[in-house]
Every structure is written in C-alpha cells, then in structure tokens.
Amino acid sequence: MKKYLFLILLNISFLATAQNTTDSKETESQKQMTEFSKTKRHSISLDVIAGLAFPAFNPRYEYVLNKYSGIGADLNINFDNENGSEVLEKFSFSPYYRQYFFSKEDYGAKGFYGEGFLKFYTYENNINSLIGASTNTNTKSYFETAVGVGIGWKWVSDSGFLIDINGGLGRNLNFADDPVERDFTGKFGVNFGWQF
Q1: Are 116 and 83 in a shared domain?
Q2: Mean pLDDT across 31-39
Q3: How confident is the model over 127-143, as pLDDT tens digits?
Q4: Cβ–Cβ < 8 Å for 185, 150
Q5: Under 8 Å between Cβ of 123 and 88
Q6: Which of 24, 22, 30 shows the shortest CA–CA distance to 105?
Q7: Are residues 104 and 130 in the same domain?
Q8: What is the value of pTM for the model shown?
C-alpha cells in the first residue's frame, strides 16, 4: 500500500514540475497576455456600421473563456420602418462560440478567429393583393432560425479598447411560413468597444 501511495505522489510531483516547465517556456509577452485574458474576461461593443448605415442598435457581449476561446451574443434591433424592411431583420438574437488562432504568438482572445453561431430573428414581408382595380399591401412578420459560421479579427489594446471586424453566413432552418422562402442570412459588423 505504501508503495502505491509513493508512486502516486511521485507522478503528481512530475506533473507539477512539467506544468512549471511549460509555463516557464512562455515569453514575457505571452505571460502578459495570459494574465490579461484571466483578468479582462468581459467585453462589450457596439456595431458602428449598423448605427451609421441604418437606424439600428447592435450591441455585443463576449465572455473570454481563455486566451483561445470565448462565448457571447449579438443583439440587433432595426428601427428602419421604411427602407429595406423586407431585406433586413427587424430583431435578432445570435449566441456564438469563438475559437481564436495564433494565441501562441502573443495574442490572447484576440486576433483571427472562427465562430459558430445560432441566429433567431424576425423580419417583415409586404404582401400585395389585387382587389378590383386597386392594390392592397399587407405587412406580415415572420420568425426564422439559422445556423451559421463566420470569421473575423479582433484587436485589443493594453488598456482594453477593442475593434472587431467580422462576417458570417447562416443557413435558415425554414421555420417561417413565408411564401417567399429565404435560404440564407448574413451577419456582418465593425464593432468598437471595451474589454474589462
């Protein structure tokens, strides 16, 4: 019994030594980014393109799991009642998971990333019907869900200011009973925000 206990303790000490050796091989910059990703795990940003191009509000929240990955969600509220309501979503909620690359080279939950996302959204279509000599237009709202992938690049300064450029494409699951089916939906943005 003492022999087994001794072997277990010996293995634990080797594992601890191996962990310290791996950590000591990190450069100073990599150690700083590891600490940064441990202390600054929350980021909030706003899509400036949605605000400038359309009257829309598109905030984003991300929680950094580690220097290689993060989870978060986008919210989009489109206030445009006149232009493009048949094309753009009126409301959307999109949770996502991100995997960051190049993290071994001084990046920490920043740089190039790939993401997988779900998108729950509503949109409107105008339905024209001919009644006698006049045309009657009815606006109908639809709810749709999509599954998609995207890529992007996130820059984070030492103070926590961030810029995130991203784009993605999702495949609709055809839950809407819209006679004009929409097969795809997009997800694009330029976000400015803060990581804290």
Answers
A1: yes
A2: 67
A3: 666 676 667 667 788 89
A4: no
A5: yes
A6: 30
A7: yes
A8: 0.74
